[in-house]
């Protein structure tokens, strides 16, 4: 990764539909080498895909966070938990964390009632969970998708 690659990534984060020509104007390189660099970053996994940024509040989704503590930290318990998390569409993000809990989940649902249903259908029925603590996001102060490159 060099300065030009970083410039391309910054430009794509601003507009994921930018053409090679538009990118070339931003980074000072002709379109063909820019295109090759983009393709190389896609192939290596630096660029993982392109998608529309949807305003969650405009489609009726609220944000909840769940702090999860496991009963045991055996490889099997952790693997089962992580697999289940990956399969739950309501969970947008999951982090293994330090502190009083083991995992932090970002969950998007339509309402507190929908979150309650999610808890009972998913988390409360999952073996190996010792404790779940919920944090309700009242309002969003900052939501940034672009990485600070």
Short description:
GO terms for molecular function: sequence-specific DNA binding. This protein has 149 residues and is an alpha+beta fold. 40% of the residues lie in helices and 20% in strands.
Give descriptors for this structure.
single chain, 149 residues, Arc Repressor Mutant, subunit A, Alpha-Beta Plaits, 5 helices, WH-like_DNA-bd_sf, sequence-specific DNA binding
What would you call the shape?
A: elongated
- Computed over alpha carbons, the radius of gyration is 20 Å
Low-confidence stretches: none
- Tally of extended strands? 4
Overall number of domains: 2
What's the CATH H-level superfamily name of the largest domain? Lrp/AsnC effector binding domain/regulation of amino acid metabolism (RAM) domain
Measured as a percent range, the helix fraction is: 25-40%
Question: What's the CATH architecture of the largest domain?
Answer: 2-Layer Sandwich
Strand content: 15-25%
Strand order of the largest sheet: 2-3-1-4
Number of helices: 5
Helices and strands: which structural class?
Answer: alpha+beta
Determine and state the CATH class of the largest domain: Alpha Beta
- List the secondary-structure elements in sequence, H or E: HHHEHEEHE
Topology-level CATH name of the largest domain: Alpha-Beta Plaits
What's the end-to-end separation, in Å? 11 Å
How would you characterize the largest beta sheet? Answer: 4 strands, antiparallel
- In round numbers, the mean pLDDT is 96
Domain HTH asnC-type: 1-62
Keywords: DNA-binding, Transcription, Transcription regulation
GO molecular function: sequence-specific DNA binding
InterPro entries: ArsR-like_HTH, AsnC-type_HTH_dom, Dimeric_a/b-barrel, Tscrpt_reg_AsnC-like, Tscrpt_reg_AsnC/Lrp_C, Tscrpt_reg_HTH_AsnC-type_CS, WH-like_DNA-bd_sf, WH_DNA-bd_sf
